[in-house]
Amino acid sequence: MNTPSRVRIVDSADVSPDASIGDGSSIWHLAQVREGVRMGANCIVGRGAYIGTGVEMGDNCKVQNYALVYEPAKLADGVFIGPAVVLTNDTYPRAINADGTIKSAHDWEPVGVTIEKGAAIGARATCVAPVTIGAWATVAAGAVVVKDVPAYALVAGVPAKRIGWVGESGVPLIAGDDAGTWICPTTGDRYSETNGILTKEAA
């Protein structure tokens, strides 16, 4: 296991020797980090969380208590996974095959959830693979995501639908004076909306 000197792994955590853990990361009580995980620097994995085989995590990610991140999920830098979030990996789950035999790893093809830079998934939300959560998007607590979420979108509900836009600070944007213009009330950053796609304007 690649464990730089500043990595903190508590005794009750189960971390595979084949996992790579970035400098400054912390893995807390009863968490499990499986084989082949590649975790960036300064990540936090909370109590009871599960990081599946081969999951990729960028730098500065936070996976809160009891979240389940199933392989082959990919998390970019700065992703937030709230408590008890589930990232699924089986489109058509079954315990057994049609002939009654127990399913093995060879009887299905795992599909993953991709979460881009800075996005946040709220507590107890479920992302049903395969979906992509765009950069800086926010998925509200308890939402069920079954289709891709655009960058900067705020989605909520079952199934999740866009109810607004958020800026990079995570605060909902407010409408500007011009049509298709949105402003972050925290930072003053401006965004432009075109055909359902939001882009940040240059400073």
Written description of the protein model:
It is a single chain. This protein is an all-beta fold. It has strands at about 10, 15, 20, 25, 30-35, 40, 45, 50, 55, 60-65, 70, 75, 80, 85, 115, 120, 125, 130-135, 140, 145, 155, 160-165, 175, 180-185, 190-195, 195-200. It has a nine-stranded mixed beta sheet with strand order 1-4-7-10-13-16-19-21-22, with no helix packed on it. It is globular.
Give the topology, please.
Elements (H helix, E strand, L loop, with lengths): L7 E2 L4 E2 L4 E2 L4 E2 L4 E2 L4 E2 L4 E2 L4 E2 L4 E2 L4 E2 L4 E2 L4 E2 L4 E2 L4 E2 L26 E2 L4 E2 L4 E2 L4 E2 L4 E2 L4 E2 L7 E4 L4 E5 L8 E2 L5 E3 L6 E5 L2 E4 L3
Parallel strand pairs: 1-4, 2-5, 3-6, 4-7, 5-8, 6-9, 7-10, 8-11, 9-12, 10-13, 11-14, 12-15, 13-16, 14-17, 15-18, 16-19, 17-20, 19-21
Antiparallel strand pairs: 21-22, 23-24, 24-25, 25-26
State the main characteristics.
7-stranded parallel beta sheet, mainly beta, 26 strands, 31% strand, 9-stranded mixed beta sheet, 203 residues
Secondary-structure class: mainly beta
Count of helices?
A: 0
Name the helix and strand elements from N-terminus to C-terminus, one letter apiece: EEEEEEEEEEEEEEEEEEEEEEEEEE
The tally of beta strands, per DSSP, is 26
Taking all residues together, what is the mean pLDDT? Answer: 95
- Give the overall shape, derived from the CA principal axes: globular
Strand order of the largest sheet: 1-4-7-10-13-16-19-21-22
Radius of gyration: 18 Å
Low-confidence stretches: none
Quaternary organisation of the protein chains: single chain
